[in-house]
Amino acid sequence: MEYKHEASYIEKLRNREIALIRRSGTLGRRLGLVGYQSIVLCFCFVLFMAACVEWGRGEAATQKSFMVIAGPQQKVVLRIYGDFMVTTTWDKSHRLSRERSISRLADADEIVMVSKDIGPLIPVK
């Protein structure tokens, strides 16, 4: 004959609170990770982020084809962020100038851009 103890209402509440406390906490505890597993997970995340940054930097350093705004003073388009573009000028030795201009695409009347192979460009430090 088995005797099954039925928990009282207060015991059920106490057990529920203990379960909630155990569930809340750090990411490692939420994922069920303990000790070095959390450290390894964080290390892998940092390593992944560093690899992404280096990959992007390598892509920018080897890029050869750029959009150039046609006109008397040709400007190279470095980046387009939504409705804004970052432009600068360059010289014959492929060095970028220090001045950068940020212009809004919607405010410009008509912009004629041509793709030219002028790279890889050398940033000014």
Give structural attributes.
125 residues, elongated, five-stranded antiparallel sheet, single chain, alpha+beta
How would you summarize the topology of this molecule?
Elements: H1 9-23, H2 27-30, H3 36-62, E1 65-69, E2 75-81, E3 84-88, E4 101-104, E5 113-117
Antiparallel strand pairs: 1-2, 1-5, 2-3, 3-4
Mean pLDDT reading: 77
Structural class: alpha+beta
Strand content: 15-25%
Question: How would a crystallographer describe the biggest sheet?
Answer: 5 strands, antiparallel
Q: Based on the structure, what is the oligomeric state of the protein chains? A: single chain
How many beta-strand runs?
5
Shape: elongated
What low-confidence regions span 5 or more consecutive residues with pLDDT below 50?
none
Number of domains: 2
Question: What percentage of residues falls in helices of 4 or more residues?
Answer: 25-40%
Head-to-tail CA distance between termini: 84 Å
Please count the helical segments. 3
Q: Determine Rg (CA atoms, Å).
A: 29 Å
Secondary-structure element order, as H and E? HHHEEEEE
Strand order of the largest sheet: 4-3-2-1-5
